[in-house]
Amino acid sequence: MLEPPPASSSKKVDRDSPLQAALKCAHHLMEQRIISNPKDMMGILLFGTEKTKFRDDKDGRGGLGYPNCYLFTDLDVPAADDVKALRALVEDEEDEEEVLKPATDVVSMSNVLFCANQIFTTKAANFGSRRLFIVTDNDDPHASDKAARSAAAVRAKDLYDLGITIDLFPIARGESNFDLGKFYDDIVYRDVNAEANGTEVRTSKSGDGLSLLNSLISNINSKQSPKRALFHIPFEIAPGLRITVKGYNVVSRQAPARTCYIWLDGEKAQIATGETTRVAEDSARTVEKQEIKKAYKFGGEYVYFTPEEQKQIRDYGPPVIRIIGFKNRNMIPAWASVKKSTFIFPSEEDYIGSSRVFSALWQKLLDSDKIGIAWCVLRSNSQPVLAAVIPSREQSDEASGTPYLSAGLWISPLPAADDLRDISAERGLDCSEDLKTKMRVIVQQLNLPKGVYNPLKYPNPALQWHYKILQTLALDEEVPDKPEDLTEPKNKAINKRAGGYLEDWAETLKDEADRAARSRSLKREVEDDEISERPAKQRKAAADRPSGSTFSMAQLKAAVESEGLSKMTVAQLKDVAGAKGLSTSGRKADLVERIEQWVEENS
Amino acid sequence: MADKEATVFIIDLGASMKAVHGARKESDLDWSMSYVWDKICNVVASNRKTLCVGVVGLRTDETNHTLAEDGYDNISILQPLGPMSMSSLKSLQTKIKPSKTTQGDAISAIVIAVDMIDTYTKKNKWKRQIYLITDGQGEIDPDDISDIARKIKDSNIELTVLGVDFDAPDYGYKEEDKPSVKKQNEATLKELVDGCGEDARFASIVEAIDDMNEPRAKSVKPYKTYDGPLTLGDPKNAPAVVEIRVERYFKTHLARPVTASTVVVKEEQAGPSQAADDEQMDGVELTAVKQTRTYKVNDPDAPGGKRDVEFESLAKGYEYGRTAVHISESDHNITKLQTQKSFKIIGFIPKEKYEPLLNLGESCVTIAAKYDERSELAFSSLVWALSELDSYAVARLVTKDEKDPIMVLLMPYMEPNYVCLYDVPLPFAEDVRSYQFPPLDRVVTVSGQTITKHRLLPSDELNQAMSDYVDAMDISNYGIDQDGEPAEYATIDEIYNPAIHRINHAIKQRAVYPEKPVPEIPPVLLRFAAPPTELVETIQATIDSLIKAADVKKVPPKAKGKRQRETVKPISGLDVDALLGGEKKGSISPENAIPDFKRALNSSEEVEQIADATKQMGAIVQSLITDSFGDNKYAQAMESIGVMREELANLEEPGQYNDFVRDLKKNLLSGTLGGDRRDFWFKMRWAKLGLINQSQSEASTVTLEEADEFYKSR
Asked: Does residue B307 belong to any structural domain of this protein?
């Protein structure tokens, strides 16, 4: 389901930073969400404005029902125009429309909440997750009006009954604290899923080197919660001991959206929605859904199973994560990775006591540096996998390599024998102790900050660029010429910190390499001599020798000029092409041509 | 490309193969054939033209082959050497049955097989194999076997003799009361095999059949994912940098089970006259299904609000929010980041600071380029340095020009045969969702207090019991290696992907025995589905005390999802319902229907009040549907129906909901709710918002069948 979005609202009278920060934050969030959750809806409702605006719908209610509420962006998947309008509001100091002019009257909070209620009910009915973010610096909007307070509480309860979560983002004014007890404790409900662990409301403020904007953004980000669990299944820790866990997709590769087809002949560009019809290959007649069967190709024909049999083949029993034993953590080889891991967290819904058992297991695995091995059928009919159950540390834990992840257990699928690829490698030359030592110094000099790889510091440059360009096209802006890429190595710093050591290392390497090359060619000559004594085998050995990688530029050039290339076998040509980083596909003529061209360009 | 293979199976079809021996239920022939069919099926399944199979029948009633000489009687070529298809498999099946004769010489059959292979493969590069499957009951002429052995060796053929109930001392099998003919034949064949070089094998077929059940991983040729420099520093500007020519290959690559194709039964092509005496009624003719796409756009003027557009008239683009961004043909690459092939180290991290749970997928292995002393030495120094410092490197990799960059973690590894860097892909900022979960070792209360003793936290007792259990269940050393020494249990080499082998097994069985039901999952695939039984038995006491300390209680199914009747309160604990005057209770406004409905039910004391609320709510739903332009209010109506269903089921008033939904269905289908509303009914069916049956609420009078019928009937 789609998460309907934060309706961000703000009250701030004089045009000072809290409002600006809130709007900027909303703008930032909108741009970010278009990328990260392109299907999410988002809306912005300003309250306490002098102007009043609701939808211009035909019900005739207009904004009259909700005075001093200004629906700046209606709840929907944001369009480019919405982003533009919001940006204009953020950047436009003049505020010509006077949208941000504060109301003189006190705005009724119950009205604001009911307005939000109506926005959600009509625009995002039947959505799985609906959230209202209230951004305000006024902790007591109805100080002297008990009736108004009560009315607001009732409207808040309505939202609760609708399944809409209210998240409050209070902004502290100056030295005074935002007192939740005055009003908002009647409005905000505890997250039912958080069990006893209450949701703490963090107040945003500027200072301590942190701008209000950043503080707001970080608070909103910390409220990110999984919309729904991937699965909710039994976790069999021991035979006869089951608890329940929910699984979440916390780490998952994000790719740019796929291209779509756009119809340009209308007044406005429109995305064309595709529909698939199935036709039989032999007769081209349209096939109905009920007729479709699944069969396996086998030796040019189909081997067919009935749907019941298909089901039987896929059936490995009901979903479960079953521990089959524990191992020392270091027994899992570093390369044992095929798929992303899934985060699991206990749920008390099916088994009371799940949390404490889970916690005990988590603690033990961390203490003893062990991992579980588990047989996992994560959904009904899904392929079973053997996975490692790995604990992640608490964020505040000094030893944690993942301070941006919560504590819990992770299901990390292990490769099967079927997934392994052979490596055909020979041991190359071993370097001297001296060279090793010199490299060691370099490695020591160039540790990443805090010695961890923190993914949050490395935005995906391809993804960012893709959306940056899309955004500029959508908003008719100037296309930037160079992307910002934080994944590039910081060469200046590398040079500064290890430049001298690198030079040292490179020099030693050069000496050793020259020596090694000499001894190798010497050896080869010896071998050649030996071979000449055994004429029978010489032909074959000679044919094998000119391996592409040993071809020097001069040799290649000579070969090109003497048309020697076409005398070589395809395998040899491929080797040469491969060694020079060229494509090895195509026919012999293509290969020859490609190598000739390369020689021409590079000699 | 994989090697070309030519394999000839010689199958003893003599009358004696009909017999049933030992504790087996099938005849010797059927039993032996289970091995041959498995082999042949693997060939058929591979669908490769370069895997060729021939089958020779030994001790057949007829004689049918190309060598017109004496001593070659009762031998027939059942399947000439060539690629196998499903139809050749089927025709072969009809030919494999025991004959009435006992005549026919196994050695002669081998000569014929050698001739077949020689003729077929000529002098080209082939992997040549002959399998002889026999019970050793026929006459064998032992003369000339040394000549024949030499010939087999010269032709580069691997000979495998698999005998029914042959003695296999290594395998611990010995046949009692062996007939003397068989004893002699076994010796003769053994001698022949011994003369054929190292690749020849002589075994009892039971070994082969047992071995067949062990899954085989398909080997795939190495795939090079990168070939170029690995750098540290800026080669263009810095005075000294690390620049190593390397090659990178897949180390793991997810193997997937074969996928089913979508097919339909072929239409009758001929007229009815032929269909009458169609013999092939059992073999259903299937044909593939293709997909065609049509495109539609919104058009308020068109019927149904949509109209078809020509695919050719469409341009490519992307969605930005709900805005369509068109990208013209000329700059179709504009959103693509320009990149150049490169592999750059950005820094290093200590090993213990890395969590393998961040691994995003398949791993690769990087080695130094061959025949390049400089790179080999440089690479060696890097791997050694990382290894000695217990460190990993983080690198940015672009595998080819214009490919998107990825971040990888390089981990040093040393084998006697090679030194390498393994790498796994790392997440970017966008790939990590910073969801917050409550801490596991403490509880923070609403008031902000931190508690360490709580029902959600383990007691010391539970911690101890868990610790004992985890230690007892350690399988780090539970397995047994080839030398019988304790070794790791469930190593990656022993794990097979059950899905792949299960489906392959089922397909092969179905291809050979179409009439048999789907076989059970081979037990070997379920080896790791549960903890080792013996281990569990020995530590049962530890498990028992863990279960006791855990004190986990299953929530009874009925209580699950049932709403607690206690009223929900905001953080302040304010009783919001009490704020409302009594007069407002019970009336439901269309604007705020769901909260009003819930409140009405909550405050209800009499069944009549519930009935009244349900009636009001029902009316609102019907008017939502009636007023809906197209489907614009469907979601609202669906949400309301869902709430009604859940709330009424929880209040044990399913009858009220069922009455409502029956009435609603009638109205939807009869068109009294503002026209044709069948589409709404489909949505309801899909969301399973039909009758509440007895399994969902005990108070319901609707059986499961009735509920099902309700969805189906129109």
From this structure: yes
B472 contacts chain A (CB < 8 A):
no
Answer whether residue A585 is part of any domain: yes
Q: Give the residue ranges of DSSP H helices in B233-372.
A: 272-276
> Is residue B327 located within the same domain as residue B234?
yes
Residues A402, B358: C-beta atoms closer than 8 Å: yes
Q: Do both A330 and A472 map to the same domain?
A: no
Facing A351 at nearest CB: one of B394, B555, B572: B555
Q: pLDDT tens, A218-241?
A: 777 766 666 678 899 999 999 999
Q: Which residues of A touch B532 (CB under 8 A)?
A: 324-325
Return the bridge partners of B368, or none: B246
Alpha-helical (H) ranges within A37-178 are 80-91, 109-123, 146-161
Q: Which of B394, B446, B555 sits opposite A448 (nearest CB)?
A: B394
pTM of the model: 0.80
What does the DSSP 8-state code read for residue B260? P
Cβ–Cβ < 8 Å for B394, B346? yes
Residue with tokens 């909700």: A66
Residue B9 contacts residue B39 (beta carbons within 8 Å): yes
Q: With bands split at pLDDT 50, 70 and 90, how would you rate the model's confidence at B448?
A: low
Same domain, B300 and B369: yes
Supply the CATH number for residue B587's domain: 1.25.40.240
Q: Cβ contacts (< 8 Å) between B266 and chain A: which residues? A: 280, 282
Best-predicted range by mean pLDDT (A30-44, A434-448, B485-499):
A434-448
Bigger pLDDT: A120 or A424? A120
pLDDT at A432 over 90: no
Q: How many CB pairs under 8 A join A and B?
A: 810
Q: Does A295 touch chain B (CB under 8 A)?
A: yes
pLDDT in tens, B543-596: 999 999 998 988 876 554 444 445 677 777 777 777 765 545 678 888 888 988
Say what the ipTM of the complex is. 0.81
Q: Is the distance from CB of A128 to CB of A227 less than 8 angstroms?
A: yes
Note whether B330 contacts A: Cβ–Cβ < 8 A. Answer: no
Same domain for A47 and A171, yes or no, is yes
Q: Is A270 on the interface with B (CB under 8 A)?
A: yes
pLDDT range class, residue B605, cuts 50, 70, 90: confident
Candidates B369, B427, B536; nearest CB to A455: B427
State which residue of chain B sits closest to A506, comparing Cα positions.
B240
Range of the domain at B377: 225-256+285-432
- Give how far A14 is from chain B: nearest CA, Å: 31
Q: Which of B529, B523, B521, B491 is nearest to B504 (CA)?
A: B521
pLDDT higher than threshold 80 for residue A204: no
Tell whether the torsion through CA atoms of A413, A418, A419 and A423 is positive or negative. positive
Query: Among A181-185, A207-211, B289-293, B669-673, which is the least confidently predicted range?
Result: A207-211
Q: Is residue B486 part of a domain?
A: no
Please list the residues that pair with B245 across neighbouring strands.
B229
Range of the domain at A558: 546-602
Give the pLDDT band (50/70/90) at residue B425: very high
Q: How many CB atoms lie within 10 A of CB B213?
A: 12
C-alpha distances (whole Å) from B443 to each of A356, A572, B286, B511, B576 are 11, 68, 61, 59, 27
CATH of the domain at B252: 2.40.290.10
Q: CATH no. for residue A358?
A: 2.40.290.10
B278 in any annotated domain: no
Domain count across chain B: 4
Q: Which chain A residues contact residue B560 at CB under 8 A?
A: 349-350
Give the total number of structural domains in chain A. Answer: 5
Q: Do residue A190 and residue B362 have CB atoms under 8 angstroms apart?
A: no
Q: Please, where are the H alpha helices in B80-144?
A: 86-95, 106-121
Whether residue B325 and residue A332 make contact (CB cut-off 8 A), yes or no, is no
Are B22 and B169 in a shared domain?
yes
A545 touches chain B (CB under 8 A): no
Is B519 part of the contact surface with chain A (CB cutoff 8 Å)? no
Contacts of B267 in chain A (CB under 8 A): 280, 282-283, 285
